[in-house]
Amino acid sequence: MQAKRSSLQITMDTVYALLMRELKTRFGSSKLGYFWAVAEPVAQASILAILFTLIGRSSLSGVPVALFLISGVMLFKAFSKSLTQLSAGIKSNTALFSYRQVSPIDPLITRLIIELATFFIVYIIILSVMFWLGFDVWPQDLLALITASLLLIFLAVGLALCLSVAQLYWQDTNKLLGMIMTPMFFISGIFFCATMIPQKFWYLFTWNPIFHAIELSRDAFFVSYETPVGSWMYLGLVTLTFNVLGLMLYRANRIRFVTL
Amino acid sequence: MIKFDNVSKYYSTKQGRHYILKNVSIALPTDVNIGVLGPNGVGKSTLVRMIGGADYPNSGQILSNKKISWPLGLQGGLQGSMTARENVRFVARIHGYKDTKEIETKVADFSEIGKFFDEPVKSYSSGMKARVSFGLTMAFDFDFDVLLIDELGAVGDANFRKKSQALLESKFNSTKLIMVSHSMGELKKYCQAGIVIKDQSILFYPKLDDAIIQYEETYVTTS
After folding, report:
1. Residue A1 above 50 pLDDT?
2. Predicted ipTM?
3. A12 touching chain B per CB within 8 A
4. Of B56, B76, B94, which has the smallest distance from its Cβ to A17's Cβ?
5. Which sequence spans correspond to the domains of chain B?
6. Does A64 reside within a domain?
7. Using CA atoms, how far apart are residues B179 and B186, in angstroms rounded to an integer?
8. Which of A57, A93, A139, B136 is the most buried (most CB within 10 A)?
């Protein structure tokens, strides 16, 4: 006989069960799974670094090109990976909702844990390697760097909740997501920063919370960079808004996820 | 006791809402085995799924303080991309078991599907699926007060049927059934009471024979 569990315990047991399952499908299916988690952002940053080196730049805003790019690419990857993974989370686990212990938000919690863990581990691995290669990788303000990263990842959580609900009403939501994420790569400040843009064009970028997060994280990372536009207030408010909205939409529609 | 408190359930169709249950308030006893009767499409499976928490009513509540199993049936329950072992582990974990080894072995022994136990469930025949899903509930030592069975008995070979019947019967003291089946013989064998779904409502009969008479009067045309 089993003792009665509290709701929180049931959720924790379920998330643990889902975690074991997801880890197996994500990384276990191919032995290279863990390798790709590190290789993908490195490859992306390397290609950009090579391009910049070819046009004769060795530093951007006083920061070595490679480090500058890694700081942007990592954060953007964390955001886009979390968003796509989490917004597909409910749909790919529908079959498991026939167990009453599994509620639709559980796969989202599970995937968030995986994305957070991957992000921090991969970031640490990359920085360690760069340290070994002779870069000065110790962030100026570690706490601010972590805060900016967490805010951006939680923005992805809020957006994913909204998108999951939107999928209930409109099947093609995820196609739209793919269309939007590609241009976002170019306007989120991955290979440039605010000081490289004329001030009169800042308004073209400052609506974008990813741009703010990357600006803020570089401000926190590099002694030589001070962001002129990055706003904690704006990033925080956007994240909060989408999380509140997402949770409300989820709460109102949670039965629809199960009943189809 | 399973209490239905003003329960309504409908599916949206092109011609508007198709009600399966409308404002149903009833209390079903959990000390007898209950057979669920009704023609195809009347909502037997939906009813069982709602009792098992795999589906929700559109309004109203279904309340019970008993331990009720998930609906054991051919659709749902097992996930196709996972192997039987992974499915078993998952179910054991969400029920709060940390050490799943013992349960895995039990299910593997009961289901007797050999090496296929470590192959994805989607590669199984329906009989093999039934073996695993039945074995899975067995493995929990019938911790459940009520076992929900949706047309599971129809598959499986003679040996397996005999084995699962014997196990079921040995547990009837502590575990009761709510069972969907189109085979009157099977229902008569297991169930004492019956439910007929009629006019978007649930009719409960303490005697299965009365339920069968009601079912035949309502739905079976003799011509």
Report:
1. no
2. 0.82
3. no
4. B94
5. 1-69+144-153+175-223, 75-143
6. yes
7. 10
8. B136
